[in-house]
Amino acid sequence: MNQSARLAIFIGIVMSILGAVHFYVWRRLVVDPAPPAALRGVLTGVFIALYLAIPATFYVSRARDIGARRLLSLPGYVWMGVVFILLMLLVGTDVIRLVGGLVQRLVAEVPPADPVRRVTVARLFAGAIAFVGGGATLAALRSGLGPVVVKDVRVRLDRLPKELHGTTIVQLSDVHVGPTIGRDFVERIVAQVNALSPDVVAITGDLVDGSVAELGDLVAPIAGMKSRFGTYFVTGNHEFYSDANAWCRHLASLGIRVLRNERVSIGEGAASFDLAGVEDHDAARFGTPSDVAKAVEGRDPGRELVLLAHQPRSAFDADRHGVGLQLSGHTHGGQIWPWSYFVYLQQPVVAGLERVGRTLVYVSCGTGYWGPPMRLRAPAEITRIVLESA
To answer: What is the mean pLDDT of residues 362-381?
Structure first.
């Protein structure tokens, strides 16, 4: 099967799933409440237009004009977030209603259905879902489009030299410069990072959603980040969608040290630790596998080791190779709750500091966002990690 055929099948599957989701939401919020025929027709047309807006958004998000790209793609991305929120609310309440109905049938005789009552309940239900969904949407937009907070995390490492107690690593992750995140956002986060006066800046992948030709100028302010020991970058899956090799060369030209299955020493002499970085966990599909073993080959096991790895699931390899701390992103903390629970099906850590084996793993919720400019119970962050010696 050639690539075009596989792409056509993939698009067909995605559109079918989107169609099923929109049909379910339309049925519960438009058909079941039985509105007047004219209103139902208008709402049905709106749902069809919103369904078609999602694939159209991915098309216009590649427009050459940055301003047009942002203006045209933003409504479709917002609707993606809204329909997800509505879907989760509907599924959750429908499950509760189903369980309640089954319990009622077991403990008491159920009276015959009353059509008038059924429509009344459906209208109240649709109104409640719309009200709660609207409130959640506004909260998510406010969080997604609001200022990025600085989150302080203290990490104790047994092998860290006492001279480096208090060393700070400022982590950026999942900025996703692209369709709706531009140069102004990059300038703001660079200013925030510089205000923290970090020892090290670490960018743990998914910096961009597009090619160097499209986004090089938007990313340029990142060259202005200042730190004692420099800025380091590892690839995320989205770099590989956008020519990772070209981006690694471009970032290097901006003074950023790209770690591609390799390591460097941070500090001087005995007062130092190893900082390693690996390719994205799934980079083997693009011919450049992630290789923790290669990154740490030949190192002194008595030295502390911090690993930059885009996906948290690299922690299993990290644990086998004596990594003290892994810094990751990728998950966005779920971005829009309750997606975080689904992320656990793939990743061992979704957000925050946890331990995988003997390795501490910190997963950032991300600095930007992907797709919908929305965050619900997963605020964007610039993370200031303070290393402490034992």
So the answer is: 98
Q: What is the pLDDT of residues 257-272, one digit of tens each?
A: 999 999 999 999 999 9
Mean pLDDT of 130-142: 98
| High-pLDDT (> 70) share of the chain, % | 99
Chain-wide mean pLDDT for the chain?
Answer: 95
Residue 367 has pLDDT above 70, yes or no: yes
Please identify which residue in the block is written with the tokens 């005789």: 109
The structure's pTM equals: 0.95
3-state SS track over the chain: CCHHHHHHHHHHHHHHHHHHHHHHHHHHHHHCCCCCHHHHHHHHHHHHHHHHHHHHHHHHCCCCCHHHHHHHHHHHHHHHHHHHHHHHHHHHHHHHHHHHHHHHHHHCCCCCCCHHHHHHHHHHHHHHHHHHHHHHHHHHHHHHHCCCEEEEEEEEECCCCHHHCCCEEEEECCCCECCCCCHHHHHHHHHHHHHCCCCEEEECCCCECCCHHHHHHHHHHHHHCCCCCCEEECCCHHHHHCCHHHHHHHHHHCCCEECCCEEEEEEECCEEEEEEECCCCCHHHHCCCCCHHHHHCCCCCCCCEEEECCCHHHHHHHHHCCCCEEEECCCHHHCECCHHHHHCCCCCCCCEEEEECCEEEEECCCCCCCCCCCCECCCCEEEEEEEEEC
- The structure tokens listed for 233 are 């970058």
Question: If we measure between CA atoms, which residue out of 158, 327, 144 comes closest to residue 234?
Answer: 327
Q: State the Cα angle at 233 between 232 and 236, rounded to 5°.
A: 160
Confidence of residue 28 (pLDDT cuts 50, 70, 90): very high
